[in-house]
Structure formats: C-alpha cells, structure tokens
Amino acid sequence: MARTDVIVLGAGIVGTSVALHLVKSGLSVALIDRGGPGEETSYGNAGVIEGNTIFPAAFPSDWATLLRIALKRSPIANYHLSFLPCVAPWLAAFRAASQPARLVETAQLMRPLFARAVAEHEALAAEADAEHYFRRTGWLKLYRSDRTFAALSRELDLAASFGIANIPLDRDAALALEPSLAPVFRHAVHWTGAVSVSNPLAVTRAYAARFAALGGLSFTGDARRLHQVQPHWRVDTTAGPLDAAEVVIALGPWLPDVLDPLGLKLPLAVKRGYHRHFRPQGNAALSRPVLDADNGYCITPMEQGIRLTTGVEFAPRDAPPTPVQFDRLLPAARQLFALGEPVERQPWLGARPCFADSRPVIGRAPGVSGLWLACGHAHWGLTLGPATGRLLGEMMTGTTPFCDPQPYAADRFMH
Question: Is 414 buried (19+), middle (13-18) or exposed (0-12) by CB count in 10 A?
C-alpha cells in the first residue's frame, strides 16, 4: 500500500502550484489527475497574470446590454435556455454581489492575493526554468466609446489607492505600443504591471516538472474514487491504491463530482468559455494581450498563434460545444487586428469554476477532517495558482500565512 502525507487532486495550475509548495515544505506529496498537468481548464486562458486586477467580472448593470444578451446578440455572454432555471439562483447571487459597494469590498478582500500574483509566479518560474515564457509588457485594454471609458473612473481611482500602475492612453499612443492594431477605438489603458505568458500549458508543465524534481509523485487516477479508509483518505490510481492523511481538492469545475458524494455542497457554477488560435496576416504582430472592452474578447500572442478568447457561456458543464460567440465577435476582432486563417479545425472549450461572490475557496473543508480545498478561481486560475499554493501550503504546515485566509474560507457558505 503506497502512502504519502498529502494527495492533491487536480493537476491544473492551482493544484500543481499547491503540490509544488507542499513538497517544498518537506512533505511527501502525490499529484493525481486523469490527464496531464494543465491540460484542462488551465490550458484555455488569455495568458495574463493579472496582478493589477481590481474589480471582478460583474453582472451587467444596464438594460441595453442585458437585452442584447437575452436576444443572443452580444459577444459578452451566451446561454442555453434550458439551463437558465438551473443557474438562476447563482445568477441572482452574482447580481447581488455585483452592486457597487459589494464590488469595492470584493476588490479589497482579493487584493492580498492579487498583490502577490506576479511575485509568486516569478519565484516558481525561476525554479522551474520557465522564465522564457513570461513577458513583462503589461496588457492593453481598449475602449471604442467615450461612455465605456468614462465608466472606468471608479476603477482607476481604486487602482490609485492600491498603488497599481496604469497609463491612460489616447489612440495614437496606444497605436505606438501596438502598431498592428487598427484605429477603431478611442481610448486605452496600459496596465504596465501585468505579466503574460506565451504558453500557459507549458508553464503548468514546467511547474509539474519542478515538483517531480523535488521528489513529488504524479499518478493517473479518477478523483471521484476518493473515499475514507480510517484513519486515511484513499484514491485508486492506475498504479494501485494510494493513502494519505490529508487531501487537497483542486479540481476546478469538477469540484462537485467529489464533494457532493461526501455531503458537502458548495454553490459553484461554471462559466464556459472558448478560444481559437489564428495566424496573423502578413507581418501583423502583438507584443502583449489586448482586451476589446466593448466586445468582451481578448486577443493575445501565443506560441500557437494569436489566441482569441470569447466571453462567457452559461450551459451545463459537459454539454456539447456551442461556439456561436465567435460569429458575434469575429467581425469586431478582424476590424481591430488582421486575423488570418484559424490554426485548429475546432475551437477549444473549457469551464471556469466560479462562486457568485468572485472569491475562491482556499482552506479546510467544513466539517470533514483532513480535507482541504483550493477551488473556484473563476477567471483567475492562472493568475492566482502560485499565490494560492503558497497560502494553502502555509495553512497546512502551520506557518504564518502571508495574508488573512478568512475571506476565502468555505464556511462563508454554511448558513
């Protein structure tokens, strides 16, 4: 019977970072996934490490945007009509959490994690020989109308209070940064402290390789087979049963598959999202990720090509892909940048694990001995993976945490 101190379930960027921090603290750690490191949700992001993030994604506050979404004309969000009754309670909670005062509160509660995001990545990247994937060119957010730019004032004021660097730019100054863009926007903000990566999958694999080099063990297995064999937890792997006194669940959108059978239900929803890579036309190029704020998509330079990401889709996690948002956003994207032929035959689909209050769960599972959670990172799994790994590692080993973990505790849902 194989035995380790800790089993980490889920080898995305969050689980891999947790496992790496735990093995660095001297524990014996097994990382278990049904696939390879970083191949699921962690693969499909815009590649931005958003240490500059202030406000989370919010429920639309204007009726015009809501109407466009309802009529399936908006690139910002899509939905499966039959799924809306299932997700309605979560959407109501998300709308409540999107009120202005709540958004400011969330920004303040999340700041300690975001403030460490870039530094924690840089520390792991240096160890893992992954620094060549990182670009320190910030990212550029574009605004096509005066109205959408004016709506930024509260966010920019809060950024100043947090000491987050940004440079508002007119169109000409933005085009000097990114000459391949077309002048179809009126305003821009260059968030200079953001870091981006050219291959999120390769970064997660590099961290996993560092974990292995330090003695960490990786196994193929099904997290749904987790069960208790007193006094231990056990997971069946392709190499046989594996026992540990403690287990970390970092399964992203698959969290309920393991927690529900244990009688622990957390109000997690998934926001599905798509991306596709395109070849640039001619000598068009980008030096950093670019967000078209009015149309809810990002274009970002990756090793595979220019990655175009969509807005969100509310649908069952495992429903077949319905990538209709590309039809809605491609005209705007091609108007902004010379996208050529797609690289892949089909778009990639993933699911972001989200709590309605836009905070992850990091810490003990309520009422279940030896079970820890690192989940619900929404749009920020890549950003917050290493910071989460450090925080949870400190909590599990009795080291003083670098920030107060209470805002991320699961018991906030235990009413």
Answer: exposed
